[in-house]
Amino acid sequence: MAKILENIKVADRIYKLVVEGNFKGEMGQFFMIRGWEEFPLLSRPLSIHDKTHESITFLYRIEGSGTDKLSKLKSGDKLKLEGPYGNGYPKTKGKVAIVGGGIGIAPLLYTAKGLKKYIEKLDIYLGFTDTSYLTDEFKKYADNLYVSVGDFITEKINVDEYDYIFTCGPEIMMKKIVDMTKGKNVKTYVSIEKHMACGVGACLVCSCKTKNGMSRVCKDGPVYDGEDVYYE
Ligand code: FES
Predict the structure, then answer these.
(1) Does residue 80 fall inside a structural domain?
(2) What is the mean pLDDT of the chain?
(3) Atom of ligand 1 nearest to the CA of 216
(4) Could you list the residue range(s) of the whole structural domain that residue 187 is in?
(5) What is this structure's pTM?
(6) Does the Cβ of 206 fall within 6 Å of ligand 1?
(7) Which of 51, 86, 164, 185 is 20 to 30 A from 23, comparing alpha carbons?
């Protein structure tokens, strides 16, 4: 069990959870958070939002009784973390845009931090429905930061400026980006979110339809070539 250092509200239903420990993990990978044994059972995939040698940070939205209970935990309380799981975003070079929508920004801060070390240019686009949050954290790694609230963030992107686009958020937003890059010399990687149970490829709860057949998001993803996914 790992100790919670901080579990704070950053926006309506959005919480930042910091857990003590030197955890392994690459950009875009996730952990299964298994908090307790009694009802409601907590078994949630939470992607790595940030990480240092002393702690790991997750960003989550209250979606049901499990995450509601998670939001009530305080510093000093204990949690069980299993992972890291999944493939994560590739390490690329060149000019990259990161595009996050809503709680989909969760894996993108650590991704920005990781990419910034060796790429030529990093622009970050963040879209929110009602209120923006944590944009200053992203600003640290961005050559240019664009934020939209209540508007389509995709309208701000000129895909011709980039070699790669890394995105996470609503499928409709990610599909739009993939459509915008069709026939162009830019590759898109999407992070797909699905309900999960086992987190290790055994139960098929997280199935996703791709051009290569049905895929297990927890094991084969969550990051896919944007053109390989059939969006819902
Ligand atoms: Fe069980 Fe993915 S969550 S196979």
Answers:
(1) yes
(2) 94
(3) 2
(4) 95-191
(5) 0.95
(6) yes
(7) 164
